[in-house]
Each structure stands twice: as C-alpha cells, then as structure tokens.
Amino acid sequence: MALSGNLLRMFPFSGRPQLAFRNGDSCGSTASDIIHIAMTLDSNYLRGTMAAVLSILQHSTCPENVDFHFLWGKYQPQVLASISSTFPYLRFRVYRFQTCRVRGKISKSIRQALDQSLNYARIYLADILPADVKRVLYLDSDLLWWTIVLAAPEYCHANFTKYFTDLFWSDKDLASTFEGRGPYYFNTGVMVMDVDKWRRGGYTQKAEEWMAVQKQKRIYTLGSLPPFLLVLAGNIKAVNHRWNQHGLRGDKLEGKCRSLHPGPVSLLHWSGKGKPLVEAGLQEALHC
Predict the structure, then answer these.
(1) If DSSP codes are grouped into helix, strand and coil, which group holds residue 68?
(2) Cα 20 from Cα 82, distance rounded (Å)
(3) pLDDT (0 to 100) of residue 241
(4) Measured between alpha carbons, how far is 269 from 141 in angstroms, rounded to an integer?
(5) Residue 185: C-alpha distances to residues 45, 157, 238 (Å)
(6) Which residues pair with 38 in a beta bridge?
(7) Which residues of 92-119 are buried (b: 16+ CB within 10 A; e: fewer)?
(8) How far apart are CA 241 and CA 152, in angstroms?
(9) What is the mean pLDDT of each run of 10 residues along the chain (288 residues)?
C-alpha cells in the first residue's frame, strides 16, 4: 500500500501540544450528539494511540463532540502526562481495567502480543463504562482515521476453518454453534457496541463461557477475536469495508501481505503482524 509523503509527516509527536480542533457549524450540543470512543492505553503502544487520536480529531466534523474513554491495566503517570500535554483540549476519561478478571481465562495464542490482558478489555466495556454511555466505538491503537464510522465491517464469505482448530470442527456440538448464522467474520479492532443491548444480552458472560471452553479443549488460536465470533458472528450490523482497511503489515500468522478492499478507504488498520507506529515509524508501512 502506497502512502503519500504528507501522511508520513502527519505524526511527528515531538511533545509539543496540538492545536485545539473546533466543531463545524452543523454540530449539535446535546448529550445525544456526543460520540464515545474507547481505546486501550499502554506505554508500549502510546505512539499508535496518539496517532489514532490525532487522526480522529483532524478528520471529524465535530471534534469537540468526541469523548474518549481510555482503558489501562495499571496507573502510568508518564502515559497520562503525554496524552494531557499533547492534547490539552481533549475530552477524555481513564478507567482501570482489572486484568485479574481475564488472567486465568487467557489461553496461549499464535503470538504473545495477542495474549496481553488489555486485548480482552473490549469484552468488558459494558461493565466498565458509565451508565450514560449508550453506544461506544471501540478502536485498536494501530489505525489511522479519515472519517466517522458507525458499526463494524462484516465479511460474509470467510473461511472459518482457519479461525478454529480441528478439535472444534470435529466436535458436532461445538461446530453446530454457527448453524443458521453462516461464516460471518468481523474485525473487533473497529466496532460499535450498543452498551445497553450488550448488558441485556449477557454477552460478557457468554464470551467468558467460550474462554472457559478454550482452556479445556483448545478450540482456537487467535486471542480475543474467536470469542466474539462464537457469540456474535452473523448477528451484527455490517457497514462498508472502507471503514476498516485491516490486515496492513501482513496477516497475524506469517506476516504475508493481504489484498486491499476495492474502492476508497476511510480507515487504515495495521492489524497484521507488524506495528509500524510502534516499531520504526510510518515509513515501514510502505511494505504492505
């Protein structure tokens, strides 16, 4: 994927504060006009988080209506100071994710990075966020944003055999999980959650039940994604693929480049094996 020189200069993050971003004339001022965005916050991925935040503010019509909800596993004053000093006008709250909730439920996956407790925090958003948040957009820290998205891109012809083990497919009861739903894959790094529906449906508990099965039978190898697929695949509202051009920097297993979605792109997602915003700057993204 080719990136322009302008893009490579967008995120210098030399520590200087960013200018305030103002709403357009058409923006509302009521509680229903607020867009809630949740992201994890960690020193290892801080550069990616800050790049994502800046891209959101730059390309939103109503940046003053965006509320950020950051989840972290432990108090990191240097991380909080970096966010506050770089974005002095940012509306945000920080929540402690009790990593002990998942530590005994996480099974080893294909990459160590996928086994980090914060990767599972998205399952617990409905338990963590305050009651006034009715809908939240969850975003990974390895993406850049061009416009606003309201749902999750869905892929209706996925090869589900590669997301679950032979043991899963050989067990008739387990394999019947997807009967009537079809192979609908979605990437959980860009998704909108109706928080009230999530609570009413008990989806946190359902995901935890599948994680318990995983500990006993080893039915998948891809970290926090499979529990979402087992619970929700085929039952989400889909949007155009332009809202999540994921797979940049290759796949998670072998790092091989993926084909791009046809047409325009509104969100770039380095969900693959390499994380250029962590490793060596955006220029590394030119390889995939």
Answers:
(1) strand
(2) 16
(3) 61
(4) 9
(5) 26, 8, 10
(6) 69, 138
(7) beebebebebbeebbbebeeeebebbbb
(8) 9
(9) 40 61 90 92 86 85 93 93 92 94 82 80 95 91 59 56 89 90 73 91 96 93 88 77 58 58 63 54 47
The pLDDT score that the predictor gives to residue 143 is 67
Which residues lie closer than 8 Å to 5 by C-beta, 6 or more apart?
Answer: none
Q: What is the pLDDT of residue 8?
A: 40
Residue 118 in tokens: 């914060």
So what's the pLDDT on residue 5?
Answer: 38
Instruction: Decide: 97 and 124 in contact? Cβ < 8 Å.
Output: yes
Sign of CA dihedral 56, 59, 61, 63: positive
SS3 267: strand
The residue type found at 123 is I
pTM (global) more than 0.85: no
Tokens of 226: 């499979």
DSSP string, 168-234: HHH-HHHHGGGTTT-S-EE-TTEEEEEHHHHHHHTHHHHHHHHHHHHHHH--B-STTHHHHHHHHTT
CA contacts within 13 A on the Cβ side of 24: 8
Q: How many helices (H) and strands (E) does the chain have?
A: 11, 10
CB 27 within 8 A of CB 63: no
Q: What is the model's pLDDT at position 10?
A: 47
Q: What is the pLDDT of residue 7?
A: 41
